Each structure stands twice: as C-alpha cells, then as structure tokens.
UniProtKB/TrEMBL annotation:
Annotated GO CC locations: outer membrane
The UniProt record lists the keyword GTP-binding: no
Ranges where the Amylopullulanase X25 domain occurs: 160-244
Pfam families, per database record: SusE, X25_BaPul_like
Name of this chain's protein: Uncharacterized protein DUF5019
Any GO MF annotation of the entry: starch binding
Organism lineage string: Bacteria, Pseudomonadati, Bacteroidota, Sphingobacteriia, Sphingobacteriales
The species this protein was found in: Sphingobacterium allocomposti
C-alpha cells in the first residue's frame, strides 16, 4: 500500500512539474506590448503647391513580443469611429523606426480612401506588428489625425490600333481624385480592338493583358476590347484590373437617319464632350443613350430638355453634346 502511494505521488509530481514547465514556456512567448507610435502633427491641410514637401512624419518604438524577433510593421489609416474597418494599409520596411509622407503621397492615400476634398476628415492611425502567422498581432496606440486632401486629377493614356498606335494622340482615361480608378470612353472600329494603357505619353511604362480582366506593367500582350463601338473603360491601378461596358450617344430622328437608326457620336475625353459631324435634313431630332429610349434628350436654344430639337435648314452640322452642363450646340458648316 505504501509502495502504491509513493508511485502515485511521484506520478502526480511529474504531471505538476510538466505542467509548470509548459506554462513557463508559454509565458516566455506571451507578447508584452505593441509599438509606441508618435506623429509630427495631429491636423493637416494639404495643398498642391507643397506636393513635394514632407507633410507627416511617424516615429515609433518597436513592439515587444517578449523575445528577440524580426518584427514586420504595417501602418493602418482608417476613418475615426470605424474601428479600422476598411482601413488603408502601408507596408513599412523591416527594421525602420520612422516613416515620412510627402504631401502628394499622403494626398494620394486619402483620395484612395474616397475622402471628401477641401474638407477635414477625422482619421485614426496605428501600427500592426507581427513576427509570424502563428503569433497574434500586436497593435500600437491609436493616434488621431485631422486631414484635408485636395482635388487632384490624373490621367492614363490608351494608344491602340483604333488610332494608329500614336502615343502622342492617344485617348486618355481620367481619375478625378487620383484614387487609382480611371475611366474614359473610346470608340473602337471593327478590326481595331487591340491597345495598351500607359502611365505617360511614352512607352516607358505600359500595361498589357494579364488575363481574366487583369492588367500588368510586366505583361507584354496587347489588351483587347470585347467588341467594336463606343465602350466605357474602367482601369483600377490599385487592383490592376480593367473592365468594359457599353456607353454611346447617338443622333436619331427625321432630321438624321430615322428614329431607330442612330448616328453614333464620338467622345472627347479631355473635354468631356460628345461630338459628331453629320448631314442633317430639315426636321426633328434627338439624342439617345446606348441605342435605347430609356435615356434621351431633345432641347431648344442649346438647352437640353425632353422636346424634339428642330432642324430648320438641311446641311452639314458639327454637333456637340455637353451632358455635364445640360447643353448642346449645332453649327452649320
């Protein structure tokens, strides 16, 4: 009986000793504290005139995971009150303890978040620190930042077979706020559907077809429009994607080629106007979108409305449709 008790006690001691050893190992690996983050300013109004100047400097003391390890840091920028849901992330170089934004870099980041321009938005900043996927991330203290971005239009260019591959005269795609999403409308004739997308009016950096609606600066193949006609292109350089959809305006009516036969207009991306030079007869006409009566305009005295436009005298006309301002013009040559 005494022998049994001794054996039982020894087993219990071994189990307790083993448990203590494991607990001690876990304690060594338990993280201690996230990074300590500081910013040079808590409020900033960005202006285009200072685009190349330093706007924001962040400094930090590294997170302490309880032992020596290589730490990877990511800066998170989110709208205040959203608990960093949908926050923008900036990967930071391992080993660095500071990071600087120029005005242009910070403005680009804020516009990519679709923040209103010329208006202050309350933001929050923090560092996410990791050492391995098997360890829980550590987060720094949260810093407030009131930031006011400015409007910044940027362009991409689309040289292709539709215009003889001339980079100097290629149509442009526009990003009104430089948030990485560019749109434009291009007319592709039958048989001239291939093109590329360039960052400047040069061939130094050109996006090619990377398959399945994706584009890449390293892809050599030409991008191809899905069909001829007026198409609206959307290029997202944040996700390296391209998409197409129908977007056309035409002239219909007794003054043109009838009420169901559209004379296609061409879109001028730089001026954001639809244009056509056409032979018109005396009689009524209208503009309609995508060869359908769901969206159509007539007008009088250069102002768009629902009435028919009446052509008083036959001839060759230069027609301009300004949808942004609700106007049109008819100039007889």
């Amino acid at each position: 009986m005494k022998t049994f008790n001794i054996i039982a006690f020894a087993l219990l001691f071994a189990l307790l000793g083993g448990a203590c050893s494991k607990d001690e190992t876990k304690l060594i690996a338990v993280p201690k504290a996230g990074a300590s983050l500081q910013a040079s300013v808590s409020s900033i109004v960005l202006t285009k005139e200072h685009a190349d100047e330093t706007a924001l400097v962040l400094q930090w003391k590294p997170a302490d995971f309880g032992f020596q390890a290589a730490v990877t840091n990511i800066l998170q920028v989110g709208v205040k009150g959203k608990n960093f849901e949908g926050a923008r992330e900036v990967a930071l170089t391992a080993g660095d303890s500071s990071y600087s934004f120029t005005t242009l870099e910070l403005n680009t980041l804020l516009l990519a978040m679709e923040l209103p321009v010329d208006e202050a938005t309350d933001l929050e900043l923090r560092l996410k620190s990791t050492i391995s996927p098997t360890f829980t991330e550590l987060y720094s203290n949260v810093l407030p930042l009131s930031a006011t971005p400015y409007a910044a239009i940027s362009f991409l260019y689309v040289p292709g077979a539709y215009q003889g591959w001339a980079i100097e005269t290629a149509e442009s795609l526009i990003s009104p706020t430089s948030n990485g999403v560019y749109t434009g409308i291009i007319y592709f004739p039958e048989g001239d559907l291939e093109f590329k997308v360039t960052t400047q009016r040069s061939w130094d950096a050109a996006y090619g077809d990377d398959g399945a609606g994706r584009i890449s600066l390293t892809a050599s193949g030409n991008i191809r429009a899905p069909k001829p006609g007026n198409l609206e292109l959307t290029v997202n350089t944040n996700e390296n994607t391209i998409s197409f959809k129908d977007h056309s305006w035409g002239i219909v009516g007794d003054a043109a080629a009838g009420w169901e036969n559209d004379i296609d207009m061409r879109y001028d991306n730089s001026a954001q106007l639809w244009r056509a030079t056409v032979e018109l007869k005396a009689g009524p006409m209208k503009f309609r979108k995508n060869r359908d009566w769901g969206t159509n305009y007539g007008g009088a005295n250069g102002i768009l409305n629902g009435d028919n436009i009446v052509i008083a005298e036959a001839g060759t006309y230069h027609v301009v449709l300004d949808l942004e301002n609700g106007k049109y013009s008819l100039t007889r040559k």
